[in-house]
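Q: A reviewer asked whether we had any structural model of the full assembly, not just the individual parts. We don't, so I'm hoping you can provide one. Inputs are below.
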Amino acid sequence: MDTQQALPFRWPATYSEIPKEVFHREDIYRLELERIFYGPHWHPMAHIAEVPNPGDFKTTYLGEAPILIIHGDDGKIRVFFNSCPHRGTQLQTCSRGSAKGITCPYHRWAFDNNGGLIAAPGSERFPESFRKQDYGLRALRSDMVHGLVFATCSAAAPTLEQFLGADGKEYVGNVLGGDGRLNLLGYQKVVYATNWKEYGDNEGYHAPLLHRAFRLLQWQGGNGTQCVTAQGHKLITAELQASRNASFLDDASLVEFRDKKLPPRSVVVNLFPMSTMTKHMDVINVRYSFPRSPNETEVHYAYFSHADDDAAMVRHRLRQASNLLGPSGLISLEDGAVFNRLHEGSNTLGKVRFQKGVNGVLEAPAFVEQNDEASNLVKWEHYRQIMGFERDQP
Amino acid sequence: MTNPDVLARIDALQIKYQRALDGADMTGWLDCFGEKDASYICTTRENEEQNLPLALMMDDSYDRLKDRVRFITEVWSGTYEDYQTRHFVQRLDCADKGAGLYAVASNFMVAYTSARGRSEILAAGIYQDEISLAGNDAKFRSKKAILDTVATPRYLVYPV
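A: Here is a predicted structure for the entire assembly that you could use as a starting point for your response.
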């Protein structure tokens, strides 16, 4: 579906500058859907903890396309378009559930949980060329790491392991409790009035400055590393340090780190194009996110406990997940505020101009200081190349 | 049939709660809760129906309620785009649980208006409350706001 034609759009010669138009133009957004979201990249769709048993399903989106994930009766988790292969009717309308199979309401075509077509009423009047096996649910390429199921619309995508790289795969595991044996705690869902790239342009520079809680709690991040891969993924880790002024809160248990089975560090994985997963304090969080237009980004924050947790640990993760890191979280609400304010403010002429850590052209993979913003420029260069935007000569 | 005086006291507490939130008066909001066994939970119908215990806000003690006030007035101050809310609450059920405690269910609808003056619905849903009339002032022992609005159209700064 790619038009194979780049838009007549020039990219600035200066490596650290991004034209603000890319956050607002409808034609650029349409090309992003084709080349990035429906192109050769992988997107997390569901963790097995969200669909633990045969028959369990979840609905979500890949780009703007409605998606249906089903745990098949054969034990395999498949990712389908949430659309009847006959006339395109949406098949499941609720966010999660369990079913013995699916029947499209329009003409009662029936499918099993593996996606196969079982029956189509009136098929004696179908053309002779009709074969049931050609009309199963349309499955996307999918694969799983640490229980997290990814999908891609593109046959040209590399394998998931190649896409993530060895480091990416390891970091995803570090977020997902080390081994991916998780239980679902629930969801927080929100719409930000921002472009998906502004949502994804968060970095380490802002953290101690925007989030006043770190200052009020005298809660500094420890030593850490930030690596950007050639695929545009950012992999960040930081030692967890205790707050030195936890009594700022009446209930300081909110900022306690209790899971001693895991290394005392926070891990953030930002996968190209826009998926984030974090393990911060005792919060295990996957943020499924998708654009709804150039001006709206929907994020589904899914939280998990670990299979080995006792009841007290589950309770602790639950309280921390509900109050610390989501759209209304103590150390994260301000991110949402900035996403929206970036989008309002970028509807102006000119370019955004990155500074911190900018030191000539970065080559991926790049290791940058933990609190630098230059890491995002590797991702931006990856974006520019995929979009086919030519850089102006200096 | 619940005693009209009881209903009047319950409704007065709900009005006090609405007035506090719509006036961004977080001290007034805190004053709607009893200091012993207090809790405020804001979650979605999706989490409730799927038996998922996660919440959007989980203030399960009076200390947590005080910290909620602190988040809004001290921690986040100056960062978020402020918005004006209007709460509309309609009592549905009221059951006497004994010892001055009542289980009350109410529909709510919350409109919000951005700084640019555009008004939309922030959330619709139901309150499941436990209200104590044992003391001089009616207080929430627990308040649970269950949002039908699963993906809110903006991030929530204030409780609902």
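A: Points you may want to mention in the reply: DSSP finds eight helices and 22 strands in chain A. Helices of chain A lie at 26-37, 160-175, 196-199, 207-210, 212-216, 311-323, 333-345, 375-387.
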